[in-house]
Every structure is written in C-alpha cells, then in structure tokens.
Amino acid sequence: MTYTRNILVVRLSALGDILISVPLVKAYAKANPKTLFTVLSAPMTQEFFKGVENIRFIADPLKKKKAGFFGIVKYARELVSSSKRSGEPITAVADIHDVLRTKVLRTALAVSGMKVASINKERAARNALTREKNKVLAPIKSSMRKYEEVFVRLGLKDLNFSTAPYPMNSLEGRTYVAIGIAPFAAQEGKVWPFEYVEECVRILSGDPNNRIHLFGGGKKEKEALEMLESNYPNTVSEAGKHTLFEEGEIISKLDVMVTMDSANMHLASLVGTPVISIWGATHPFAGFYGHGQNPEWAMGLALPCRPCSVYGKKPCTKGNYPCMRGIKPEALVEKIHQVISQRASQELNS
User: Fold this and answer.
1) Do 202 and 135 fall within a single domain?
2) What is the pLDDT of residues 77-127, one digit of tens each?
3) Chain mean position to CA 180
4) pTM score
5) What's the pLDDT score for residue 344?
6) Where is the domain boundary, 163, 190, 213?
C-alpha cells in the first residue's frame, strides 16, 4: 500500500490519556485508509494499537534516554531520516500531549517543513473549575474531543467519534457476577480509603454468586491486594500477574469495574466494560471521564471545595480528603447492585 500522508501522533504519557486515544486513532485510521498513522507513545501500550493496517507504532525512547533539548532535536532528525528511508516520510504531526518534550519535538519537526497541530488544553476553564472561590462547575470538553480537533486541524474529516455511542460487553451466558475493583491511583486525592475497599470486598465476597478481581500496580499495592485475596472468599488479586494488554482482556469479561479517576477507568472503557468511578479531589467535568460511560455511574460528593485539582496533586486543605471519606462502602455496594441490575434488564430487553 502506498500512503499519501504519514501523520505522526504523539502522546508520550500518562497511561490513561494514551488509552483514551486508542479508539480514536483506530477510528481515524479506518476512515482514512490512504493515510498512515505513526503513533509515538509508551512501549506498554503498543498491543492496543494493533489490528489496523495503516497504524505504525514507535516506542518512545525519550524518557528512557532522559533526553534534553538537544537530544530531542537529534531524535526529531532521526525520525525524519528514518521515515524517508522507509518510503513513508512524515508529512504532519498531531501533538495530543503538549508538554515540554513534545513542544520541542514538534517545533523541530515543523522546521523540517511538516504541518503541525497541537491540543488545546483549555487551561483557563480548568482553573475556573478547580479554583477555591467562584468555581465554574460546568463540563469542559472531553480529552477525546480535544484529540479529535487536532486531527481536524490537520485536514481530516471530523468523525465526531467522541460523541458516538460506545459498545459495551455482553453478559449473555454468564452464570456468576464478575466484579473488578482497582482501588489505587497515582495521586492521594484520587484514592479511596483502603479500609473502605476492604469493607466493600468483605460484603461482596459474602455472596457466593460473586467473583471479585482486584487490580493494582506497585509492590505495596500488590501486597495489599494479596492480603484481601487471602482473607476473603471468591476474591483473586490480578496484580503483578499480567501485562497491561492481558489485564484488559480480563477486564473485558467483567460485569462491572470499580475504579478511581485512573488509567483503569480508561482501560475498562476501551474494552467495553461498564465502570463505576469514584471521584474525590478531581471531577468528571475536567474532561477525563471514561469514554462511553454512563455519567450516573460516577460517584462523588457535592462539596464547596470540590473539585480542587485537575489531576489530584494538590494537598487537601481540610487535611483528610472528606470528598473521599464521605463515600461509604455501603453506597458503593448499592451502586454495584444497581448497575448490574440495570445491565441485566437492558440485556433482556435487547
């Protein structure tokens, strides 16, 4: 196949934001078969971009090399040269990240004559949403829509993919209820108290019809989840046992997934599993809600101080995150039953 264009799509991190881009890039690739989409991103996400002929993947070497300004400029030249040697020269750059590294990279590529478009992060709207006084509690454009606008500015047709219904997995033939719980996140303001997680697992594991799958990453998370696996029946920790892609396959077979505002929310959304998300310092209005997820399945308290942060990094002014501690285990269990019942009803009527 001879391609008329080669668009370099740059999204180096974070994991959840990369996963948001996967279905969108695939949709645009399928709609533009004569355009090659070269994705520059985190190595662990490569498997998710497979399956579409006109998508290529380059594992991001910049973070590993800890490249400074001149290292990034050098890498930009290498990208230009290697794409020309392959007979598929890069013609445009879609920067859907817009951080210092990608700014330098896209500028260096623009000097080579490539058309460049970058994401508008709407920082003023985010500041209005999270400021302490006179908050503007209104939805901001979703991240996926912002990504889509970058492609449109490069001359691709607007697919309005970000507003399209997203297919959910099926419960057909299931003889038990499979529930996933991913109780961790990178920032403290996005983490539900672990004693609440344990109480939720205790309640759910008491029903022999339930199968509970626990997900987490680091050593401490793995140890905490293995403790729950040991202490409660019908409970298994998946932490540290699988690749990210394999975890996605497990999550795709769940009836419902419980997550924080984290990458697991986007992974579950990507594989079509309904998500109950718990929100503390952050808010779905910031544009990071799981694609295709029902807004009624997001749990968060209406507090004057909330949201206080886009990414959950700010220390709590109250000292103990009442936005998280106020969401009780019993309320989550009730929400789980509600979502499962709602889904079962939908399946019967479909």
Assistant:
1) no
2) 999 999 999 999 999 999 999 999 999 999 999 999 999 999 999 999 999
3) 16
4) 0.95
5) 79
6) 163
Q: Give the CATH number, domain containing residue 270.
A: 3.40.50.2000
Rounded distance, CA 83 to CA 216, Å?
A: 38
* Among the listed residues 275, 280, 279, 310, the one whose alpha carbon sits nearest the alpha carbon of residue 291: 275
Identify the CA nearest to 307 among candidates 50, 214, 298, 170.
298
Could you tell me the CA-to-CA distances from 235 to 68, 216, 228, 330, 339 in Å, in that order? 46, 14, 7, 18, 20
- Establish if 77 belongs to a structural domain: yes
Query: CB–CB of 109/140 below 8 Å?
Result: no
Report if residue 172 sits inside a domain.
Answer: no
**Does pLDDT of 153 surpass 90?**
yes
Identify the pLDDT of residue 243: 96
Q: Considering the domain boundaries, does residue 168 fall inside one?
A: no
Could you give the CA distance from residue 149 to residue 126 in angstroms, rounded to a whole number?
Answer: 18
Residue with tokens 């949403």: 129
Residue 60 has pLDDT above 90, yes or no: yes
100 CB neighbour count, 10 Å cutoff: 9
Structural domains in the chain (count): 2
Query: How far, in Å, are 40, 272, 276 from residue 241 at the CA level?
Result: 27, 22, 24
Beta pairing, strands 298-299 & 275-278:
parallel
Residues 6+ apart with CB under 8 A from 316: 188, 189, 281, 308
**What domain range is 62 assigned to?**
5-163
